[in-house]
Protein backbone atom coordinates (compact mmCIF):
# COMPACT_ATOMS: atom_id res chain seq x y z
CA UNK A 1 0.00 0.00 0.00
CA UNK A 2 1.34 3.38 -0.97
CA UNK A 3 1.85 5.84 1.82
CA UNK A 4 -0.23 8.97 1.82
CA UNK A 5 1.54 12.21 0.89
CA UNK A 6 1.79 14.75 3.63
CA UNK A 7 1.59 18.55 3.76
CA UNK A 8 2.52 20.39 6.95
CA UNK A 9 2.16 24.14 7.28
CA UNK A 10 3.32 26.36 10.13
CA UNK A 11 0.97 29.33 10.19
CA UNK A 12 2.92 31.98 12.10
CA UNK A 13 1.38 35.01 10.43
CA UNK A 14 -1.74 36.74 11.69
CA UNK A 15 -2.50 38.37 8.33
CA UNK A 16 -5.74 37.61 6.52
CA UNK A 17 -4.09 37.19 3.14
CA UNK A 18 -1.32 34.91 4.37
CA UNK A 19 -3.78 32.78 6.33
CA UNK A 20 -5.90 32.56 3.17
CA UNK A 21 -2.89 31.28 1.23
CA UNK A 22 -2.20 28.72 3.96
CA UNK A 23 -5.78 27.45 3.99
CA UNK A 24 -6.10 27.38 0.20
CA UNK A 25 -2.95 25.25 -0.07
CA UNK A 26 -4.14 23.06 2.82
CA UNK A 27 -7.57 22.52 1.31
CA UNK A 28 -6.04 21.80 -2.08
CA UNK A 29 -3.66 19.26 -0.60
CA UNK A 30 -6.49 17.60 1.34
CA UNK A 31 -8.52 17.36 -1.88
CA UNK A 32 -5.52 15.56 -3.43
CA UNK A 33 -5.62 13.14 -0.55
CA UNK A 34 -2.63 14.42 1.42
CA UNK A 35 -2.59 14.20 5.18
CA UNK A 36 -2.54 17.87 6.09
CA UNK A 37 -1.60 19.66 9.30
CA UNK A 38 -1.69 23.38 9.99
CA UNK A 39 0.32 24.21 13.08
CA UNK A 40 -0.80 27.63 14.36
CA UNK A 41 1.80 29.52 16.34
CA UNK A 42 2.26 33.14 17.49
CA UNK A 43 -0.08 35.48 15.57
CA UNK A 44 -1.41 32.59 13.49
CA UNK A 45 -3.31 31.50 16.60
CA UNK A 46 -5.68 34.41 16.04
CA UNK A 47 -7.18 32.57 13.05
CA UNK A 48 -8.46 30.00 15.54
CA UNK A 49 -10.00 32.47 18.00
CA UNK A 50 -13.75 32.53 18.44
CA UNK A 51 -15.42 35.78 17.52
CA UNK A 52 -17.22 36.01 20.82
CA UNK A 53 -15.47 37.55 23.83
CA UNK A 54 -15.08 34.50 26.07
CA UNK A 55 -14.71 35.50 29.73
CA UNK A 56 -11.60 33.80 31.11
CA UNK A 57 -9.31 34.74 33.99
CA UNK A 58 -6.08 36.34 32.80
CA UNK A 59 -3.13 38.26 34.12
CA UNK A 60 -2.68 41.92 33.14
CA UNK A 61 -0.22 41.40 30.27
CA UNK A 62 -2.21 38.49 28.87
CA UNK A 63 -5.34 40.65 28.95
CA UNK A 64 -3.53 43.37 27.01
CA UNK A 65 -2.30 40.97 24.35
CA UNK A 66 -5.74 39.37 24.13
CA UNK A 67 -7.41 42.75 23.75
CA UNK A 68 -5.09 43.99 21.03
CA UNK A 69 -5.14 40.87 18.88
CA UNK A 70 -8.01 40.18 16.45
CA UNK A 71 -10.69 37.79 17.62
CA UNK A 72 -10.96 35.30 14.80
CA UNK A 73 -10.14 34.99 11.13
CA UNK A 74 -12.63 37.56 9.94
CA UNK A 75 -11.01 40.34 12.00
CA UNK A 76 -7.48 39.89 10.73
CA UNK A 77 -5.71 42.56 8.67
CA UNK A 78 -3.75 42.40 5.42
CA UNK A 79 0.04 42.06 5.19
CA UNK A 80 0.02 44.81 2.51
CA UNK A 81 -2.30 47.71 1.83
CA UNK A 82 -4.22 47.26 5.08
CA UNK A 83 -5.04 51.01 5.28
CA UNK A 84 -6.42 50.70 8.80
CA UNK A 85 -8.91 48.01 7.89
CA UNK A 86 -10.02 49.41 4.52
CA UNK A 87 -7.85 46.94 2.59
CA UNK A 88 -9.53 43.84 4.10
CA UNK A 89 -12.95 45.32 3.25
CA UNK A 90 -11.87 45.84 -0.36
CA UNK A 91 -10.43 42.37 -0.70
CA UNK A 92 -13.53 40.77 0.81
CA UNK A 93 -15.64 42.69 -1.67
CA UNK A 94 -13.67 41.44 -4.67
CA UNK A 95 -13.62 37.95 -3.19
CA UNK A 96 -17.40 37.97 -2.98
CA UNK A 97 -17.64 39.22 -6.55
CA UNK A 98 -15.37 36.41 -7.76
CA UNK A 99 -17.04 33.78 -5.56
CA UNK A 100 -13.82 33.17 -3.63
CA UNK A 101 -14.32 31.67 -0.17
CA UNK A 102 -13.73 34.01 2.77
CA UNK A 103 -11.24 32.82 5.39
CA UNK A 104 -13.76 31.59 7.99
CA UNK A 105 -15.32 29.36 5.30
CA UNK A 106 -11.89 28.09 4.26
CA UNK A 107 -11.24 27.10 7.88
CA UNK A 108 -14.58 25.34 8.11
CA UNK A 109 -13.87 23.48 4.85
CA UNK A 110 -10.48 22.43 6.20
CA UNK A 111 -12.16 20.96 9.28
CA UNK A 112 -14.65 19.11 7.10
CA UNK A 113 -11.77 17.71 5.04
CA UNK A 114 -10.03 16.49 8.22
CA UNK A 115 -7.14 18.89 7.97
CA UNK A 116 -5.52 18.67 11.40
CA UNK A 117 -5.62 22.11 13.00
CA UNK A 118 -3.12 22.40 15.81
CA UNK A 119 -2.62 25.25 18.27
CA UNK A 120 0.92 25.68 19.61
CA UNK A 121 0.62 25.43 23.39
CA UNK A 122 3.84 27.29 24.10
CA UNK A 123 2.79 30.42 22.24
CA UNK A 124 -0.77 30.16 23.62
CA UNK A 125 0.86 30.54 27.03
CA UNK A 126 2.92 33.53 25.90
CA UNK A 127 -0.01 35.36 24.33
CA UNK A 128 -2.31 34.34 27.16
CA UNK A 129 -4.79 32.49 24.94
CA UNK A 130 -6.86 29.76 26.57
CA UNK A 131 -8.60 26.74 25.06
CA UNK A 132 -12.03 28.21 25.77
CA UNK A 133 -11.21 31.09 23.42
CA UNK A 134 -10.31 28.88 20.46
CA UNK A 135 -12.46 26.94 18.00
CA UNK A 136 -13.77 23.49 18.86
CA UNK A 137 -12.13 20.31 17.57
CA UNK A 138 -8.62 21.57 17.27
CA UNK A 139 -5.58 19.85 18.73
CA UNK A 140 -3.00 21.19 21.15
CA UNK A 141 0.66 20.37 20.78
CA UNK A 142 4.23 21.66 20.81
CA UNK A 143 7.24 21.73 18.53
CA UNK A 144 7.95 17.99 18.98
CA UNK A 145 4.58 17.04 17.48
CA UNK A 146 5.13 19.51 14.65
CA UNK A 147 8.48 17.96 13.80
CA UNK A 148 6.95 14.48 13.91
CA UNK A 149 4.50 15.52 11.20
CA UNK A 150 6.96 17.62 9.21
CA UNK A 151 9.94 15.28 8.99
CA UNK A 152 8.05 12.81 6.80
CA UNK A 153 6.34 15.55 4.83
CA UNK A 154 6.35 16.17 1.11
CA UNK A 155 5.40 19.81 1.35
CA UNK A 156 6.56 21.83 4.39
CA UNK A 157 5.84 25.52 4.48
CA UNK A 158 6.30 28.32 7.00
CA UNK A 159 3.75 31.05 6.34
CA UNK B 1 18.49 7.52 -15.05
CA UNK B 2 18.44 9.61 -11.94
CA UNK B 3 15.50 11.92 -11.56
CA UNK B 4 16.16 15.62 -11.53
CA UNK B 5 15.93 17.40 -8.20
CA UNK B 6 13.15 19.90 -7.88
CA UNK B 7 12.80 23.30 -6.18
CA UNK B 8 9.38 24.92 -5.90
CA UNK B 9 8.92 28.38 -4.44
CA UNK B 10 5.68 30.17 -3.64
CA UNK B 11 6.39 33.88 -3.96
CA UNK B 12 3.60 35.50 -1.96
CA UNK B 13 5.50 38.60 -0.91
CA UNK B 14 5.61 41.80 -2.91
CA UNK B 15 8.82 43.03 -1.27
CA UNK B 16 11.92 43.68 -3.34
CA UNK B 17 14.26 42.01 -0.86
CA UNK B 18 12.13 38.89 -0.43
CA UNK B 19 11.64 38.54 -4.19
CA UNK B 20 15.42 38.88 -4.57
CA UNK B 21 15.95 36.02 -2.12
CA UNK B 22 13.42 33.91 -4.03
CA UNK B 23 15.07 34.56 -7.39
CA UNK B 24 18.61 34.06 -6.06
CA UNK B 25 17.65 30.66 -4.65
CA UNK B 26 15.78 29.80 -7.85
CA UNK B 27 18.69 30.76 -10.09
CA UNK B 28 21.11 28.86 -7.86
CA UNK B 29 18.95 25.75 -7.96
CA UNK B 30 18.61 26.01 -11.76
CA UNK B 31 22.39 26.28 -12.05
CA UNK B 32 22.62 23.03 -10.04
CA UNK B 33 20.29 21.45 -12.53
CA UNK B 34 17.11 21.42 -10.46
CA UNK B 35 13.75 21.79 -12.13
CA UNK B 36 12.60 25.06 -10.64
CA UNK B 37 9.16 26.65 -10.38
CA UNK B 38 8.27 30.01 -8.86
CA UNK B 39 4.55 30.23 -8.23
CA UNK B 40 3.60 33.91 -7.91
CA UNK B 41 0.52 34.60 -5.81
CA UNK B 42 -1.02 37.67 -4.14
CA UNK B 43 1.53 40.53 -3.93
CA UNK B 44 4.21 38.34 -5.51
CA UNK B 45 2.37 38.82 -8.81
CA UNK B 46 3.67 42.37 -8.90
CA UNK B 47 7.14 41.06 -9.70
CA UNK B 48 5.71 39.85 -13.00
CA UNK B 49 3.99 43.11 -13.98
CA UNK B 50 5.23 45.03 -16.96
CA UNK B 51 6.51 48.51 -16.23
CA UNK B 52 4.32 50.10 -18.86
CA UNK B 53 0.74 51.03 -18.03
CA UNK B 54 -1.17 48.56 -20.20
CA UNK B 55 -4.69 49.80 -20.97
CA UNK B 56 -7.15 47.04 -20.04
CA UNK B 57 -10.79 47.20 -19.05
CA UNK B 58 -11.32 46.82 -15.31
CA UNK B 59 -13.95 47.25 -12.66
CA UNK B 60 -13.60 50.03 -10.09
CA UNK B 61 -12.07 47.95 -7.27
CA UNK B 62 -9.70 46.19 -9.65
CA UNK B 63 -8.57 49.58 -10.96
CA UNK B 64 -7.86 50.75 -7.42
CA UNK B 65 -5.81 47.68 -6.57
CA UNK B 66 -3.98 47.93 -9.87
CA UNK B 67 -3.21 51.59 -9.28
CA UNK B 68 -1.90 51.11 -5.76
CA UNK B 69 0.32 48.12 -6.46
CA UNK B 70 3.82 48.53 -7.94
CA UNK B 71 4.15 47.96 -11.66
CA UNK B 72 6.99 45.49 -11.92
CA UNK B 73 9.95 44.27 -9.91
CA UNK B 74 11.88 47.52 -10.02
CA UNK B 75 9.10 49.43 -8.26
CA UNK B 76 8.72 47.13 -5.28
CA UNK B 77 9.55 48.26 -1.73
CA UNK B 78 11.60 46.67 1.03
CA UNK B 79 10.17 44.50 3.83
CA UNK B 80 12.33 46.44 6.32
CA UNK B 81 13.70 49.98 6.31
CA UNK B 82 11.70 51.00 3.28
CA UNK B 83 11.54 54.66 4.45
CA UNK B 84 9.03 55.62 1.77
CA UNK B 85 11.18 54.36 -1.06
CA UNK B 86 14.55 55.59 0.21
CA UNK B 87 15.53 52.08 1.41
CA UNK B 88 15.21 50.49 -2.04
CA UNK B 89 17.34 53.28 -3.52
CA UNK B 90 20.04 52.65 -0.94
CA UNK B 91 20.01 48.90 -1.44
CA UNK B 92 20.17 49.27 -5.22
CA UNK B 93 23.15 51.56 -4.81
CA UNK B 94 25.08 49.06 -2.69
CA UNK B 95 24.03 46.26 -5.03
CA UNK B 96 25.50 48.14 -7.95
CA UNK B 97 28.69 48.79 -6.00
CA UNK B 98 29.01 45.08 -5.18
CA UNK B 99 28.01 43.98 -8.70
CA UNK B 100 24.91 42.19 -7.40
CA UNK B 101 22.19 41.68 -9.99
CA UNK B 102 19.10 43.87 -9.60
CA UNK B 103 15.76 42.04 -9.41
CA UNK B 104 14.66 42.61 -13.05
CA UNK B 105 17.94 41.03 -14.21
CA UNK B 106 17.47 38.11 -11.82
CA UNK B 107 14.04 37.50 -13.34
CA UNK B 108 15.47 37.64 -16.84
CA UNK B 109 18.21 35.20 -15.86
CA UNK B 110 15.60 32.86 -14.40
CA UNK B 111 13.72 32.89 -17.69
CA UNK B 112 16.94 32.16 -19.59
CA UNK B 113 17.61 29.24 -17.26
CA UNK B 114 14.12 27.84 -17.88
CA UNK B 115 12.85 28.47 -14.39
CA UNK B 116 9.10 28.02 -14.73
CA UNK B 117 7.42 31.29 -13.74
CA UNK B 118 3.77 30.76 -12.89
CA UNK B 119 1.11 33.36 -12.12
CA UNK B 120 -1.68 32.22 -9.79
CA UNK B 121 -4.90 32.74 -11.74
CA UNK B 122 -7.12 32.89 -8.66
CA UNK B 123 -5.27 35.83 -7.11
CA UNK B 124 -4.91 37.52 -10.52
CA UNK B 125 -8.70 37.58 -10.51
CA UNK B 126 -8.85 39.00 -6.99
CA UNK B 127 -6.32 41.73 -7.63
CA UNK B 128 -7.75 42.40 -11.08
CA UNK B 129 -4.53 41.67 -12.95
CA UNK B 130 -4.83 40.57 -16.56
CA UNK B 131 -2.46 38.58 -18.76
CA UNK B 132 -1.71 41.61 -20.91
CA UNK B 133 -0.20 43.36 -17.86
CA UNK B 134 2.22 40.55 -17.03
CA UNK B 135 5.54 39.54 -18.61
CA UNK B 136 5.64 37.33 -21.69
CA UNK B 137 6.36 33.60 -21.51
CA UNK B 138 4.98 32.93 -18.08
CA UNK B 139 2.48 30.21 -17.26
CA UNK B 140 -0.95 30.50 -15.66
CA UNK B 141 -2.15 27.96 -13.14
CA UNK B 142 -3.85 27.35 -9.81
CA UNK B 143 -3.16 25.60 -6.54
CA UNK B 144 -3.55 22.11 -8.06
CA UNK B 145 -0.66 22.68 -10.46
CA UNK B 146 1.43 24.12 -7.62
CA UNK B 147 0.85 21.02 -5.49
CA UNK B 148 1.72 18.78 -8.43
CA UNK B 149 5.14 20.44 -8.63
CA UNK B 150 5.65 20.74 -4.89
CA UNK B 151 4.73 17.26 -3.72
CA UNK B 152 7.72 15.70 -5.45
CA UNK B 153 10.01 18.57 -4.54
CA UNK B 154 13.28 18.53 -2.67
CA UNK B 155 13.16 22.16 -1.67
CA UNK B 156 9.77 23.80 -1.06
CA UNK B 157 9.68 27.35 0.21
CA UNK B 158 6.99 29.94 0.91
CA UNK B 159 8.46 33.41 0.61
CA UNK C 1 23.14 2.66 8.99
CA UNK C 2 20.18 4.98 8.69
CA UNK C 3 20.91 8.44 7.45
CA UNK C 4 20.28 11.33 9.79
CA UNK C 5 17.25 13.50 9.09
CA UNK C 6 17.98 17.04 8.12
CA UNK C 7 16.33 20.40 8.85
CA UNK C 8 17.45 23.50 6.96
CA UNK C 9 16.05 26.93 7.73
CA UNK C 10 16.62 30.17 5.85
CA UNK C 11 16.28 32.96 8.39
CA UNK C 12 15.56 36.02 6.24
CA UNK C 13 13.53 37.93 8.79
CA UNK C 14 14.99 40.32 11.33
CA UNK C 15 12.01 40.09 13.68
CA UNK C 16 12.45 38.83 17.22
CA UNK C 17 9.34 36.63 17.09
CA UNK C 18 10.16 35.05 13.74
CA UNK C 19 13.77 34.40 14.78
CA UNK C 20 12.40 32.81 17.98
CA UNK C 21 10.23 30.48 15.91
CA UNK C 22 13.23 29.58 13.74
CA UNK C 23 15.45 28.81 16.72
CA UNK C 24 12.75 26.88 18.60
CA UNK C 25 12.20 24.63 15.57
CA UNK C 26 15.97 24.30 15.06
CA UNK C 27 16.61 23.37 18.69
CA UNK C 28 13.71 20.92 18.64
CA UNK C 29 15.01 19.27 15.48
CA UNK C 30 18.53 19.05 16.94
CA UNK C 31 17.10 17.42 20.07
CA UNK C 32 15.49 14.82 17.78
CA UNK C 33 18.88 14.21 16.26
CA UNK C 34 18.42 16.04 12.96
CA UNK C 35 21.35 17.71 11.31
CA UNK C 36 20.25 21.33 11.46
CA UNK C 37 21.40 24.39 9.54
CA UNK C 38 20.16 27.95 9.92
CA UNK C 39 21.21 30.04 6.95
CA UNK C 40 21.03 33.73 7.94
CA UNK C 41 20.45 36.14 5.08
CA UNK C 42 19.37 39.78 4.75
CA UNK C 43 17.82 41.03 8.03
CA UNK C 44 18.23 37.62 9.63
CA UNK C 45 21.94 38.39 9.85
CA UNK C 46 21.16 40.82 12.65
CA UNK C 47 20.45 37.87 14.96
CA UNK C 48 24.14 37.01 14.66
CA UNK C 49 25.48 40.51 15.40
CA UNK C 50 27.45 41.09 18.56
CA UNK C 51 25.90 43.58 20.96
CA UNK C 52 29.08 45.59 21.22
CA UNK C 53 29.83 48.26 18.64
CA UNK C 54 32.83 46.73 16.87
CA UNK C 55 34.95 49.38 15.16
CA UNK C 56 35.44 48.35 11.53
CA UNK C 57 36.15 50.39 8.42
CA UNK C 58 33.07 50.90 6.26
CA UNK C 59 31.82 52.97 3.37
CA UNK C 60 29.12 55.59 3.95
CA UNK C 61 26.12 53.50 2.89
CA UNK C 62 27.34 50.46 4.80
CA UNK C 63 27.74 52.63 7.91
CA UNK C 64 24.16 53.85 7.52
CA UNK C 65 22.77 50.34 7.18
CA UNK C 66 24.90 49.15 10.07
CA UNK C 67 23.72 52.01 12.26
CA UNK C 68 20.04 51.52 11.52
CA UNK C 69 19.95 47.77 11.99
CA UNK C 70 19.70 46.19 15.45
CA UNK C 71 22.92 44.94 17.00
CA UNK C 72 22.11 41.42 18.01
CA UNK C 73 19.12 39.24 18.79
CA UNK C 74 18.09 41.09 21.94
CA UNK C 75 17.59 44.37 20.05
CA UNK C 76 15.29 43.04 17.35
CA UNK C 77 11.66 44.16 17.04
CA UNK C 78 8.42 42.24 16.65
CA UNK C 79 6.73 41.50 13.31
CA UNK C 80 3.39 42.53 14.85
CA UNK C 81 2.50 44.90 17.66
CA UNK C 82 6.01 46.29 17.95
CA UNK C 83 4.74 49.68 19.19
CA UNK C 84 8.15 51.31 18.89
CA UNK C 85 9.84 48.72 21.07
CA UNK C 86 7.12 48.36 23.70
CA UNK C 87 5.89 45.07 22.20
CA UNK C 88 9.25 43.31 22.58
CA UNK C 89 9.41 44.44 26.22
CA UNK C 90 5.95 42.99 26.86
CA UNK C 91 6.74 39.72 25.17
CA UNK C 92 10.02 39.37 27.06
CA UNK C 93 8.14 39.95 30.30
CA UNK C 94 5.60 37.21 29.60
CA UNK C 95 8.40 34.93 28.39
CA UNK C 96 10.19 35.39 31.68
CA UNK C 97 6.99 34.70 33.58
CA UNK C 98 6.45 31.48 31.64
CA UNK C 99 10.11 30.48 31.80
CA UNK C 100 10.47 30.63 28.02
CA UNK C 101 14.03 31.09 26.78
CA UNK C 102 14.86 34.53 25.38
CA UNK C 103 16.31 34.60 21.87
CA UNK C 104 19.99 35.06 22.83
CA UNK C 105 19.73 31.92 25.02
CA UNK C 106 18.05 30.01 22.18
CA UNK C 107 20.97 30.91 19.92
CA UNK C 108 23.47 29.80 22.56
CA UNK C 109 21.59 26.52 22.99
CA UNK C 110 21.63 25.99 19.23
CA UNK C 111 25.40 26.41 19.20
CA UNK C 112 25.74 23.92 22.07
CA UNK C 113 23.60 21.44 20.12
CA UNK C 114 25.82 21.85 17.04
CA UNK C 115 23.20 23.55 14.94
CA UNK C 116 25.20 24.92 12.01
CA UNK C 117 24.79 28.70 11.96
CA UNK C 118 25.67 30.15 8.59
CA UNK C 119 25.93 33.79 7.55
CA UNK C 120 25.18 34.53 3.89
CA UNK C 121 28.28 36.23 2.54
CA UNK C 122 26.50 37.92 -0.36
CA UNK C 123 24.05 39.79 1.87
CA UNK C 124 26.79 40.54 4.42
CA UNK C 125 28.45 42.43 1.58
CA UNK C 126 25.25 44.27 0.69
CA UNK C 127 24.47 45.30 4.25
CA UNK C 128 28.11 46.05 4.96
CA UNK C 129 28.44 43.55 7.81
CA UNK C 130 31.89 42.19 8.56
CA UNK C 131 32.97 38.99 10.27
CA UNK C 132 34.31 40.89 13.26
CA UNK C 133 30.78 42.13 13.99
CA UNK C 134 29.21 38.67 14.06
CA UNK C 135 29.25 35.95 16.73
CA UNK C 136 32.14 33.52 17.00
CA UNK C 137 31.97 29.99 15.60
CA UNK C 138 29.59 30.62 12.76
CA UNK C 139 30.18 29.62 9.17
CA UNK C 140 30.25 31.76 6.04
CA UNK C 141 28.74 30.56 2.81
CA UNK C 142 26.57 31.38 -0.18
CA UNK C 143 23.48 30.05 -1.91
CA UNK C 144 25.31 27.00 -3.31
CA UNK C 145 26.12 25.72 0.17
CA UNK C 146 22.55 26.38 1.26
CA UNK C 147 21.18 24.33 -1.62
CA UNK C 148 23.61 21.53 -0.86
CA UNK C 149 22.14 21.27 2.64
CA UNK C 150 18.55 21.87 1.61
CA UNK C 151 18.20 19.49 -1.32
CA UNK C 152 18.57 16.43 0.88
CA UNK C 153 16.51 17.93 3.68
CA UNK C 154 13.39 16.61 5.33
CA UNK C 155 12.24 19.96 6.66
CA UNK C 156 13.04 23.10 4.65
CA UNK C 157 11.65 26.39 5.83
CA UNK C 158 12.00 30.04 4.80
CA UNK C 159 11.31 32.26 7.78
From TrEMBL, chains A, B, C:
InterPro entries in alphabetical order: DsrE2-like, DsrEFH-like
Pfam families hit by this protein: DrsE_2
Superkingdom of the organism of origin: Bacteria
Stretches of the chain forming a coiled coil according to its record: none
Residue intervals passing through the bilayer: none
Protein's recorded name: Peroxiredoxin family protein
Organism for this UniProt entry: Priestia koreensis
Amino acid sequence: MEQKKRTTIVLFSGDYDKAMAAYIIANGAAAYDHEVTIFHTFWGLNALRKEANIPVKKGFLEKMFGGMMPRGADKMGLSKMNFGGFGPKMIKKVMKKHNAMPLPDLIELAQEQDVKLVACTMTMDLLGLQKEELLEEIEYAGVAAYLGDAEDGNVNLFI
